[in-house]
What we know:
Largest sheet: 4 strands, mixed
Radius of gyration: 18 Å
Number of helices: 11
Strand content: 25-35%
Shape: globular
Amino acid sequence: MPAEWEEHSGTIMIWPERPGSWTYGAKYARSVFAEIICNISTCEKVHIAVSEQGEASAHELLGAEIASGRVQLWKVKTDDCWARDMAPTFVKEDGKLSGIDWAFNAWGGNYNGLYKHWQNDDKFAAFICEKLNTGYKNAHPFVLEGGSIHSNGNGIVMTTEECLLSKGRNPDLSKEQIEQKLKEYLGAEKIIWLKRGIVGDETDGHVDNICAFVNENTVVLAWSDEGEQGEICRENYEILTANGLNVIKLPMPEKPVTITQFDLDGFVFEDGEDTREVGEKLAASYVNFYICNAGILVPQFGDKNDKAAVKVLKKAFHDKKIIPIHATQLIVGGGNIHCLTQQIPKE
């Protein structure tokens, strides 16, 4: 599995629509999506899955990019828009690209999944591999989301026990069997198991919200000194350093990002779907950045630590442009920039 900083031929995204994730008909989220897409498309093609209902709004906000060919729309129905978790994970074999189609069950299936119906999401990886004419590997029934793994591009894959060992993923497999699956599909030689992720992360602690490789031997680790999150950070720090990695501490937002009454009034939840409440703390993290050919897209929350996070990442990625994106409307939907993007490595 190539590292994210290796050259891309494109990025996959899915236009937001689900009323239980995106407030007020996704009006505010779509503006942020368009900003992300416009930045990425300056240096690589962006492939966007869009429903018939969402197509008009995509053309309205991205007309010039679509007309130029920098953005390609693919008409397909999905249940939500978390491309990191639903799109294929791409690997290379002898320089040839293959997309791995993991089983997707809405982050926990009948055990603790976030919504009841995820069949369209589960079909998406196979659909996009066919459209992109890449190689294809069907990994079903093994459940895995792309946000639960990070690769250094040289044989090391990082994940969390909280997620991959949760009862909603592959309860019949042992840790050793899951590790073997990762090695088999991703070409990994070593799996680094962190314990837990961000407190309150409804994906059961996806690694892409707490820790990310910035080069083969260095990671940034979301950092807090306080409470349970502080304990988790210190525990993960010890694991990373014991595995010989350099660790850069990336501060978390100083003030919690929470659901407001305005946010809550904009949702429309379906039966059986995970709902929100006013004051609910969201798993906001600067680690949920995306590395594309154009630079590093970094979430910002209107927080005191926004500038500090940019400064840390500028030092970590000294040869890359840092592109801050105000991302509060994304985290209200339950994730952030990395969650919404999936890179297509260049062959």
